[in-house]
Structure formats: C-alpha cells, structure tokens
Write a structure and sequence with these properties.
By secondary structure, this protein is α/β, with parallel strands linked by helices. It is about 45% helix and about 15% strand. The N and C termini lie close together (about 10 Å).
Length: about 350
C-alpha cells in the first residue's frame, strides 16, 4: 500500500517566504526526477496550513480545468515577494498614532482582502483538488474553526477560499478579526488559527484519520482512514524563533508590555510542542516508518523574526535563510522527493 502524504505549513506572516523557498526546491526536484511541469499539489494527499501556511496551502491546491494543480509554488513566492509590501504596509501616520498596534490593529486589512480577491476570485473551498485543513478560531463561540475542503463537499460548511485565507490570517494586533459567511449563510467571527495551532501538523494527523483517501483519490493503493504508520508527514516551519526576553524587563511588566512577548511565545511554543508529540508518535513505530516524519524549520540567520517586516533587505534575508537550509539539508530533501514520487496517486 502507498503511504498517505501529508504537508503541514506553519504560520509566520512574511516569513512564509522561507516555506516557499523550501517547497520550490522540492518541486524542482520532482520536475527533474519524475515529470517536467510537476506541481506540489499533485503529490500530496492532504495539505494543512495556519495563517500564512493556510494561504500557501490554498495556492498549492488551486484547480486547473482538469482538476489538477494549477499553480507552481513559484506563484506563492511571487505573491509574497511582490505583494508583501502592499499587504503589510503601515503608513507613517499610523506608526506615530498607533505604535505596535496598541490602539487598534497594526495593519489595514483592505490591501490583504484586495489581493486575496484578485488571486482567488470566487473559488470555493470544496473545489480545491485535495483534502485540506486550514485553521482559524471562532471568538464568539470560543472554539477552533477548521476549514476542510473534503467536508465542504459533503455538508454545508463551504466558503469562498478568499474568505478562508482572510480568516486564517487575522493575527491579533496585526489584522482585525473578520466576519465571514458560509455559502449557506452561516456567519462566523474569526481570528488567526495560529493562536492555537501555529504548527497544524497534529490537527492534520487527527483530520486525516477520518478521511477515506482510497475513495476520494480513486486509488485503491491508498488507505482509508490511515493510521500513523500509513502516513508520511512533512511539516515546514517559518524559521526558528530564538529571540530571548529579559527576566528583569518582564518581572514586573504590565499587560501592554506582555502583548508582543505573549503572542510570540504562544505561537512558537505550540509549534515546538506539536513537533515533540509527533516525534513521540513516530518513535513508537518500526524503524522504517519512524523516518516518515520530517520537521523542516530553518534558522532565520540574518532575517528579522517579525511577521510584517517587508523591507527588501529582509525579504532577501528570508530567501537566503531558505537557501542556506536547502544547502545544509539537501540529502533529507531529496529523500522526501523520492518518497513523494513513489507514493503519488
């Protein structure tokens, strides 16, 4: 039987450029060793994403007229490199009257919403080519809201992809919360899924366990409702956060001083915890299957850890951080490529 291939993409704002650089290398190797013009969406059975990872997942799974992957990951990289400055732009006046997003959201949502509308148009969640899981959090009902393209085909939980991407990107203090409406008329008030699952790998595992992949993908060599030993999980981060916080500065800090550190710590800590949990799960398997979990999370090198630093110099530093990771981990990445080829539907 073929393994179920799962791609999980962390949140991280403009740092999603690092994710795109790593995925571009994998895609280029697929084109060399399997098929010219190969696209990632045709090699993964399930894609999960939080925040910026949810946006990349949506790009990967966009359909062409034959219900195959429409876009190369290069399209995602271009979106960040070319439109990032527009999306994350903060005016000089806003920096003066609203430093650090203390009064209201740091960044206006108009540019983000315009770019999402221009890119995805009226594409519906159920039209994505493979099952996916994109995270957000419902602030009124106080529970996770998980967008699943497979479920959108069989129940009323269908949305425009542009609205799903807006919801998963609504990081507190950066973008305002958003109200979106399902295509059946139900309204949800949502914020960034990175608040509880910045690394959505464990959510992806749990959701994949419920999916009849052989039936959906029309491939009897795939396993319905796969267990952990039936999976290959590739989890990609947006750079290891190594910024430390001074005990003396935070010892008697008030609420305002804790705003940025608490969001940063929550997002990086839950990503690290999920990685630990998945490592433990795969370590219980036979030796051959233990090697089917990959966590790819580069050092940021000279890049800023900020999710909204869109200076040209920082974008170049993010690209270089991704390229450096590829150079240091080429054997591992090539191993992933070979597994994707052998497990392709």
């Amino acid at each position: 039987m073929k393994k179920t291939t799962i791609l999980s993409l962390d949140g991280g704002g403009i740092r999603g450029i690092i994710t795109c650089i790593i995925l571009r290398y994998i895609e280029e190797q697929l084109q060399i060793y399997d098929k010219p013009g190969a696209k990632l969406g045709d090699y993964f059975d399930f894609v999960a994403g939080s925040s910026t990872g949810g946006l990349i997942a949506s790009i990967i799974l966009c359909p062409n007229e034959h219900r195959k992957a429409k876009y190369s990951i290069q399209k995602g990289l271009e979106l960040y490199a070319e439109k990032g400055g527009d999306i994350f732009q903060v005016s000089f006046w806003e920096r003066l009257v609203n430093p650090f997003g203390l009064i209201n959201e740091k960044i206006s949502q108009e540019a983000l919403e315009k770019n999402l509308n221009d890119f995805f148009g009226n594409l519906e969640l159920k039209e994505l080519i493979k099952p996916c899981l994109i995270t957000s959090y419902d602030i009124e009902n106080r529970r996770a809201k998980l967008f699943n393209s497979w479920k959108a085909r069989i129940n009323t939980d269908n949305f425009y992809v542009k609205d799903v991407c807006r919801a998963t990107s609504a990081a507190p203090t950066y973008f305002s919360p958003v109200q979106i409406k399902s295509l059946y008329g139900q309204i949800f008030s949502l914020i960034d899924g990175g608040m509880f699952a910045n690394n959505p790998s464990l959510c992806a595992y749990a959701e994949a366990r419920k999916i009849p992949f052989a039936e959906i993908l029309k491939d009897q060599q795939k396993t319905d409702h796969p267990a952990v030993n039936d999976m290959i999980v590739i989890s990609i981060g947006t750079g290891i956060e190594s910024r430390s916080y001074s005990f003396r500065k935070l010892e008697k800090a008030g609420k305002i001083s804790w705003v940025n550190p608490i969001i940063d710590i929550l997002m990086s800590a839950n990503a690290e915890t999920v990685d630990y949990q998945l490592c433990q799960m795969f370590d219980t398997l036979r030796q051959q299957n233990q090697k089917n979990y990959y966590r790819l999370n580069p050092s940021l090198k000279n890049a800023s850890p900020a999710m909204d630093n869109v200076r040209r110099s920082n974008i170049e530093n993010l690209i270089q951080a991704g390229l450096c990771f590829i150079d240091d981990n080429r054997n591992t990445l090539n191993e992933i490529v070979q597994k994707l080829i052998s497990n392709k539907t």
